[in-house]
Design the sequence.
């Protein structure tokens, strides 16, 4: 079928993207779903720094590529062997397809699925190959999703069926921002009632982490960012905004540091600050994706002498089939108001302007409505 989609052919073009136009809208050929695959009518897709890092070249991916990895839509066709999804189902798409058979999957850590990671790195579906083409040219999938398109084909392992009455723009952000941010707090940081938490970086993932910490019963949640409007939103959600020197400020307010710090900015500087803001025995969780050339320096002795924990968390260390429905239920109950993270809605032809806005820190979560 013919599908209108946003294609990235070259990374690292100069800003502003509204002028250089790295994402071009093109009419592509999309092959029908094969075994274990779904054809999904995309209804909403979020703009994330993981997309921006491919556009600016800090996270190299095979090109040309149809971008987008956080989305929700409706299943319109299923391939042979599909077991869970049916035509008409509404689905949230997630960016790590889990095979269920590799060692991490068997250990209950599907975010580390080895075949899924290999397929994502090569720009292919977990089921093998690409379904995108144009005049005989093969195009790549972004993280098995390619959400910036009117329709997309995904492996069933990339989709979670959700209730049909959930608005698509809200549903979309559960596929990345909410899973990653809330998961970092609950699954990786193991925040407990009474803990004090600091979140460094207040994009969609960071503010989701703020909401997750508040839901977990943190006694104080400290929010750190360079953008005043994001600090104000964090205050409205229930956090304490920290300005000036965040490490000194947090350590003074907590008499030595927080129990858990979460870094979402993708900056080794922010990560070092998050680590320094934790107390003895504290845990620092990073979900950010800095440029691969960046290095982190911390006092090595502190890991042992102060029993510190520093850990990474990919996709919030989540199990999407388990966590997406449970997090949606918390949203429905009013305990996780993630709809507050949606600051802009735009059309497919406004993506370049949207990524300019994201790069300037002028948006939290933007949703393309299709």
Sequence:
């Amino acid at each position: 079928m013919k599908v209108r989609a946003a294609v990235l052919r070259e990374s690292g073009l100069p800003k502003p993207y509204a002028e250089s136009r790295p994402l071009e809208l093109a009419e592509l050929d999309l092959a029908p779903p094969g075994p274990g695959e779904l054809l999904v009518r995309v209804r909403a897709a979020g703009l994330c720094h993981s997309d921006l890092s491919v556009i600016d070249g800090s996270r190299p991916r095979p090109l040309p590529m149809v971008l987008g990895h956080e989305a929700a839509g409706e299943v319109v066709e299923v391939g042979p062997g599909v077991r869970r999804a049916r035509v008409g189902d509404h689905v949230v798409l997630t960016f790590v397809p889990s095979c269920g058979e590799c060692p991490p999957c068997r250990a209950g850590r599907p975010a580390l699925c080895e075949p899924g990671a290999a397929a994502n790195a090569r720009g292919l579906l977990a089921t093998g190959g690409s379904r995108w083409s144009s005049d005989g040219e093969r195009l790549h999938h972004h993280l098995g999703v390619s959400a910036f398109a009117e329709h997309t084909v995904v492996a069933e392992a990339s989709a979670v069926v959700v209730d049909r009455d959930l608005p698509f723009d809200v549903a979309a952000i559960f596929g990345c921002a909410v899973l990653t941010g809330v998961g970092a707090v609950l699954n990786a940081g193991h925040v407990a009632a009474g803990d004090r938490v600091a979140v460094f970086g207040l994009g969609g993932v960071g503010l989701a982490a703020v909401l997750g910490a508040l839901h977990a019963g943190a006694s104080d949640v400290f929010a750190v960012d360079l953008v005043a409007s994001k600090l104000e939103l964090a205050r409205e959600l229930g956090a304490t905004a920290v300005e000036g020197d965040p490490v000194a400020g947090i350590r003074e307010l907590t008499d030595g540091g927080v129990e858990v710090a979460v870094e979402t900015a993708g900056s080794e500087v922010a990560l070092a600050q998050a680590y320094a803001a934790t107390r003895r025995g504290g845990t620092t969780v990073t979900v950010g994706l800095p440029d691969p050339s960046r290095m982190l320096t911390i006092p090595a002795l502190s890991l042992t002498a102060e029993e510190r924990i520093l850990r990474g968390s990919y996709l919030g260390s989540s199990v999407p089939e388990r966590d997406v429905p449970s997090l949606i239920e918390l949203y429905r109950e009013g305990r996780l108001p993630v709809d507050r993270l949606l600051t802009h809605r735009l059309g497919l032809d406004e993506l370049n302007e949207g990524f300019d806005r994201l790069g300037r820190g002028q948006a939290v979560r933007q949703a393309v409505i299709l």
